[in-house]
What does this fold into?
Amino acid sequence: MKVNLWGTRGSLAAPGPETVRYGGNTSCVSIEDPDGSWLILDAGTGIRNLGQNLPSDLKRVDILLTHLHMDHLQGLPFFAPIRSPDIETHIWGPASTMMSLKSRLQRYVSPPLFPVSIRDLSPTLHFHELSFDMFEIGKFCIVSQLVIHPNPTVGYRIKLNDKTVTYIPDHEPMLGAPTFPRSPEWTSGYDLAQGADLLIHDSQYTHTEYDTRLGFGHSNMKQAFEFAEMANVKRFVPFHHDPAHSDDQLDQMITHAVQEVKPGFDVTPGLEGMILNLE
Amino acid sequence: MAQQQVEVILARHLAENLALPIFIVDPQGNLIFFNEPAEAVLGLRFGDTGLLPASEWSTMFEPVEEDGTPVLPEKLPLMIAMMHGHPAHKGFWIRGVDKKLRQIELTAFPLIGQSGRITAAIAIFWEVSHES
It folds into this structure.
């Protein structure tokens, strides 16, 4: 399967000369089955560009939302297929205990925050609320599970043939794990990540930044590495970069974490536009 | 070992940061955590016990009524919370591992997650003080 990073930034889009390599668009990843099926993970600003690059004969696309924070949603109304009657677009995501997924999305995709209401988009737009059980989309086998981040937020474990990708872009596994990283039983996201061929995971803060942002729902770079090590993944992609971090800072943060943790897995910095082939 | 549900992880985190005695049982009735204030009332340390199966902890603390008759398991608030999915409260006496008899008031409630499933039950309890 082919994994493409269309947006790797967290919190806020951050275009500019300082972020050219890692990219400025917010969270969006696609997974393509060699047979032509597409899964899209999150609808940050990166999804706009993805929408321009889908095969013209595509009949269905599935978007899996981890949560409804703006940086994971802002590109949705600009994703060309949701205005097309020729493509079925299925949106999967968490409901809240009081509101349906569609109602929660409607809060953002409606005036005055957006000029068009979600109900006026394509009639081929479908909504699916996650049940937190395993489910299948075509040949993709998917597990969603709540993870620690403010408001209902899930991570995904996606299996195709014998390869597994875990996607947890917003996650604070330290919270609630008093002996992290030595207590997998008490660490959010562990079951999703365990043994994955590829882990795409939150690594937003530096060590110093994390100290003043405890409970914001994100990891620092070292914690993300430790989480990947604990879960025994094969390859790790640091993701959801802070909008204030330049390319050079991100290089330094990753280099420093590698020196500290000495990981037993491959590390691939999360660069916008990167394509990872899992053979 | 399988990972606990996020709601349970966060409940433990909350319990670790409160001064109220709290313990948490999983849907199978195993005692999966109790905090430091609870350790003082129960007379043992979580670090020493780790997870305790229902068959062990339910007899360890000897819950009794004021007249000394044992409290039936199905009358214990935690069991009511877990089995029936609603909160329950009861005052009774327990004899901790240290053999000291303590009067407590205990409120238990089910921890119902986003999925609507009961992921655990939580008991918050107070030792009754007879000092004015």
